[in-house]
Please model this.
Amino acid sequence: MTEPRINGERLWDSLMELAQIGATAKGGVKRLALTDLDKEGRDLVVRWGREAGMSITIDQIGNVFMRRDGVDNTLPPVMTGSHIDTQPTGGKFDGNYGVLAGLEVVRTLNDLQLRTQAPIEVAFWTNEEGSRFVPVMMGSGVFCGAFSLETAYAAKDTEGRTVGEELERIGYKGPQVPGDHPIGAYFETHIEQGPVLEDADIVIGVVPAVMGLRWYDCTVNGMEAHAGPTPMALRKDALQVATTIMQEVVAIAHRYPPYGRGTVGMVQVFPNSRNVIPGEVKFSIDLRNVNDELLDTMDADIRAFIGRTQAATGLGIMLEQVSYFAPTPFHPDCVGAVRNATEKLGYSVMDVVSGAGHDAIYAARLAPAGMIFVPCKDGISHNEIEDAKPEHLTAGCNVLLLAMLERAVAL
Model:
């Protein structure tokens, strides 16, 4: 029996039409969460869902669920989805692909007049990017109880507007209590946002897990002094000490391959003057790995190194952990459904552990979950030049279709 296939051209056309809302001069998209452009994008996707015969439910944090009934609507739905908000210099595919791939699955089921035992739902979650409001993955985080609705409502953007006010303003503050919405299984299809698949010339990435991360703020306190009269041996140079810690962050990541990651992405130097020895340096540390044991070991390593450095230099060094996401293994049944679908379709495949956060992390707290990756050009994402091949997007959506049919039981 020939496996069903989605309409790749229709999927591409939908992606390109949505990308016009907030289109940038460099070919990207700027559609920040809960702005007028986000409302316009939401309205378009909801209209498409209704045209596909789907019912619409919106919860109090603005998460939208588009439902295609099953034969037995008492069963929890098999859900797919992602987000349609973007970075300030975002691309056409990050998040958007996962939502519109789900819509294309429903359109294809309609075309083929295929019914499923369980309902099918397509979700798009509020403020996944966190580029206007913090925390990131806000909608799915509230949905799974990671933080309260009140905390989310109170979050402010740089102009002082709150999430609660903006949800009201754009008309997407729904009546359903977040979490009062069952999920039988959850799949998320996404561009990889990294270079692994393209480098290996592989079409489908099966995602067994998402890396955990620890974020820290580190502050090194020295003493400002004149760059000329102060001998090298008598300096308390906060920047030079900070750079040894920064180098250790990278060294730690190399010690725990293949999924060890260590990044310093933000540095503030005080007083930041050409001829003044820096007296204070604040910088970020980002450590990631695939399981808690490795992540805890990396944490212990950086703390031990900072302790030794403080003792050797006499400078004050403060390390504060500011965020933690536990590593998330996905459910074997959903990972298996993705593998089965890829095998049936004959696509090249490899496992890819995700280094980025996704709404699937929070969905996995409530139901079996899995992810499907496809390549993106040069591994670039969160950038206006983000790109992906139509045939790869089609392949990922075909895998999604079969994986969801396996869980929802095609009739």
